[in-house]
Prior knowledge:
It is an enzyme of class 2 (transferase). The protein is of the alpha/beta class.
Amino acid sequence: MTKILGLTGGIASGKSTVSAYLGSLNLPIIDADLIAREVMKAGSPAISEICEQFGADMLLANGELDRKKLGDVIFASPEKRNQLNDIVQGRIRAEIKRQLSECQKKNPPLIILDIPLLYEEEYENQVDEIMVVYVDVDIQKARLRNRNKELTEEEALNRILSQMPLIEKAELADILIDNNGTIENTLSQVRKWLKTVVPEIEFAE
Ligand SMILES: CC(C)(COP(=O)(O)OP(=O)(O)OC[C@H]1O[C@@H](n2cnc3c(N)ncnc32)[C@H](O)[C@@H]1O)[C@@H](O)C(=O)NCCC(=O)NCCS
Ligand SMILES: Nc1ncnc2c1ncn2[C@@H]1O[C@H](COP(=O)(O)OP(=O)(O)OP(=O)(O)O)[C@@H](O)[C@H]1O
């Protein structure tokens, strides 16, 4: 029986770090951020709707989405964020469903659904277990600003506040991964859990 793991957390909490590691072990990963990029690629129906509602200046000269510009708009305003969510979340959900059923046909022991908005968009029933990658908010903000150097203190905070508080996600988790320490420490917590689910898995340690 295939187990579906929902991998979630907050912005810059370390999901991609965990998911890249799981991918390096050849476990199948479905990446919601990647699917969102596909859904909003140049020439897509979602892009036309975004232009209608947010203005054609949301596009770069090559027809691709200006991610920085749209991010500045939606992370500063809950109304605009809802407006964007109304355009994209249904399409993202449909593609996730399609990829999950494709992947299940191969009968792997484990599929990982890497999805930042698992709780906000109510994917709890689509997965068997939920892993939350947690960090304290001050570390989260520092890592976010270190990764997205263009963000001011206020913009970084707005991005964090646009999601369900990470501490609430941690309380709901089936598996809680503490990413306040080193990456190696985090990955060793992940390995410990993996051994209980896929005992035959081998790690190059
Ligand atoms: C607004 C966009 C263009 C900004 O792009 P940018 O390259 O700066 O950010 P990126 O896509 O890497 O997202 C970074 C993180 O922001 C958070 N985030 C993204 N969208 C949202 C949202 N609608 N609400 C709350 N948090 C969000 C997630 O934690 C995500 O991992 C982009 O985030 C986007 O297209 N968002 C809508 C699609 C979506 O919901 N994606 C999440 C997958 S379910
Ligand atoms: N334990 C750690 N120690 C130091 N830096 C870390 C640690 N874990 C992650 N990082 C760094 O913090 C940043 C955010 O991590 P990552 O991209 O994995 O988060 P994420 O949850 O996938 O973020 P997003 O939702 O925004 O895509 C990255 O630059 C990453 O290299």
